[in-house]
User: Fold these one by one.
Assistant:
Number 1:
Amino acid sequence: MKTAVDKVGDGKKRTINARFETMTGHYLFDPEFCNRAAGWEKGIVEKNVQDRRRGIWREASERRWNSLEELNAWLQKACVEAWEHLQHPEWVHMTVADVYQDERLRLMPNPRPFDGYIEHPARVSSTSLISFQRNRYSVPCEWVNAMVSVRVYHDHLMVVSPDGEFIRIKRCFERDQTIYDWTHYIALIERKPGALRNGAPFRTMPEPLRQLQDQLLRHPGGDRVMAQVLNAVTLHGLEAVLVAVELALQTGRVSAEHVLNVLSRLKEPSRNNEPVHTHLSLNKPSQANVDRYDRLRAQQWRDQEVNHA
């Protein structure tokens, strides 16, 4: 397989992939390859795996899966259940699960999981996009025209900048798609707020932000006001800004000052009024009675009149 072998030589000679060789050093084992098209060298093992694999994938094809994670969890469970029914090729009176339980007592402790990615260099375009397998993904606009490292995992991409900063992007398995993350362009709209009006990345913003944008852009200078609101996302986080925007939309007052004011009140630490413990005790509990205050005011007002006279 190409993830392990770059070139097949004569006999059992192989040119091993660099990442696969790193994994062998991580888990401390030596790779041992069979001859090409010589399935009989692994005998019954390959036949059992082939038969059970066909049955598992036939059952998987008859279902619908919402995500790759759900499919992987079901595959793991199906394989473990298969061990309980398959007989071991050498000890036929035992199942694969029984032999595995016996071998677990002799296994070495497993180190931390190997970071199994494939790395590719890529250059960021002038529109802050990188290309991978006929798809384009957005990255922070500060990385424009820079060479970045794209580390490919089974479900996501990790893009590392020359300064060591990195972002995670959910991997798309379709073709000719452009996947935007509007937060990557916040620094750009601080300099060019007019990009909010027709910018494709900002069509993927959450609905509260889009409603706020529609109302603000009806007024002159609304794009600059919207840029101030989006800039608060980098300071306070997206969830806090969304709550502040929803509260501002409910009141009907759409302005950057109102949103930032609501946001500051939401971020304000709550005060815990804990009771003060003292050895003093009240014979008569205090009451919220303002009559005493009014009597004091009336007495003070009469004293002032006397002094004035």
Note: The first helix runs from residue 18 to 27.
Number 2:
Amino acid sequence: MTCKMRVLRRWRRMAIAALLGLCSLWAVAVSLPQGESEDSTRRIWKKRFREARAHTRARRPRSTAVNGELIGVTIWRLRDEQNKPMAERATAGTLFNEGERVRLSIEVPREGDNYLYVIDREVYADDTASDPYLIFPSQSTPKWGNVATAGKPIFVPAQGDEFPYFTLERARKDQLREELTIIVSPKPLKVPIGAPTNPVRLEREQVVQWERLWGGRVEWWEELSGVGKQLTAAEKAADKGERRLVQGDPLPQTMYLIKVKSGAPMVLRVPLRIASRSDSY
């Protein structure tokens, strides 16, 4: 009786091991089409950006998980090269050193005009945040300077500002990051506009309401081949308002898909993480 039980147990262990092995092989087989699907989705996002730049309606294939609205964001890290500031691309997850200078360019591949707003908050180690401040547009923003259309990247801060960049500095020792809230709206918002060096404080409740009403689940793709690349001549001309980007020009560094209705207002949070001193070594 005891011998039979041992044999049965041994066979059970062997059967379980075989079953686990089959399951692991099945999991690997299933993961391969997922990678192909993600790559296909990324190509669709790029296609929608390029078609929007060509002023043609981007086709949205059926049975694809790309329903929503796209927004492209490039974080530019400014470095001094021969006493001239040079802008190079950084990822959305970059850990910046305190004192570094950055700019953003934001592109919305939508038909028609939309209005762009950028709100800044400091986020601390205890997960609290400062009051929100509207940092774009400002009183120095030219008329229609915050109107986003396909192929027109909006640079924040603007080139004409006294300081056309942000300098990342901690207001408190426990500050972890600056958190930028990007709002794209088909209609202008009724908000006060301040000076570039003296932005207007907004009501917390109002910003929370916008985030609740206009936010959605966010997916994103990073253009890894673009990391570290410098601002191209086409992007410099677009920054000055001399031209729009076309299909062959570089795409945004990070593309976000926000699950909102087509043409509806949308909200996106972009963190600018600041490294601690221990992270810098």
Note: The first helix runs from residue 2 to 53.
